[in-house]
């Protein structure tokens, strides 16, 4: 018999309830138990950044974070960035405008890191953006477009 724990998770300003094994990672809870599939599973080892989400406003890798660790904390996924009106977040809009994606698989994690980059004041130069975003890999090589999108979104945020 597999032991489970009941979790109440605050995700994108909404309360979600689920029963998971104690060792379930946040990424698996989001995707497999709650149907929030915008957060992607890439390497599943914390090396690619595809699973980046925000917990209490800070970026974390959902594949390395136990779901039980974030109970009672505010979680934001890519689905939570869109305004209630349906308008895209400025970073999402900038990614579209600058073609900052090709296959799109890394895009949710890239966008979540970009939002944190701007929020933390780390978008002062292209070099600073590249440094901050280094933990998010793009197999298609859209890095120049990603940096341009982050730069533009940072300018809009000022």
From TrEMBL:
Stored InterPro entries: 2Fe-2S-bd, 2Fe-2S-bd_dom_sf, 2Fe-2S_ferredoxin-like_sf, 2Fe-2S_ferredoxin-type, 2Fe2S_fd_BS, Aldehyde_Oxdr_Iron-Sulfur, Beta-grasp_dom_sf
Residues annotated as domain 2Fe-2S ferredoxin-type: 5-81
A GO term for molecular function: 2 iron, 2 sulfur cluster binding
Domain of life: Bacteria
Pfam families: Fer2, Fer2_2
SUPFAM superfamilies for this protein: 2Fe-2S ferredoxin-like, CO dehydrogenase ISP C-domain like
Keyword entries, A-Z: 2Fe-2S, Iron, Iron-sulfur, Metal-binding, Oxidoreductase
Protein name in UniProt: Xanthine dehydrogenase protein
Lineage, highest ranks first: Bacteria, Pseudomonadati, Pseudomonadota, Alphaproteobacteria, Hyphomicrobiales
């Amino acid at each position: 018999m597999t032991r489970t724990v009941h979790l109440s998770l605050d995700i994108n300003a909404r309360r979600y309830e689920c029963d998971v094994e104690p060792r379930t990672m946040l990424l698996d809870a989001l995707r497999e138990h709650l149907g929030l599939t915008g957060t992607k599973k890439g390497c599943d080892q914390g090396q690619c950044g595809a699973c980046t989400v925000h917990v209490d406003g800070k970026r974390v890798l959902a594949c390395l974070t136990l779901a039980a660790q974030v109970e009672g904390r505010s979680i934001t996924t890519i689905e939570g960035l869109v305004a209630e009106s349906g308008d895209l977040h400025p970073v999402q809009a900038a990614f579209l405008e600058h073609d900052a994606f090709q296959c799109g698989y890394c895009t949710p994690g890239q966008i979540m890191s970009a939002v944190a980059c701007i929020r933390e004041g780390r978008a002062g130069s292209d070099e600073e953006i590249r440094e901050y975003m280094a933990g998010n890999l793009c197999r298609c090589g859209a890095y120049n477009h990603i940096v341009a999108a982050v730069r533009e979104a940072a300018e809009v945020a000022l």
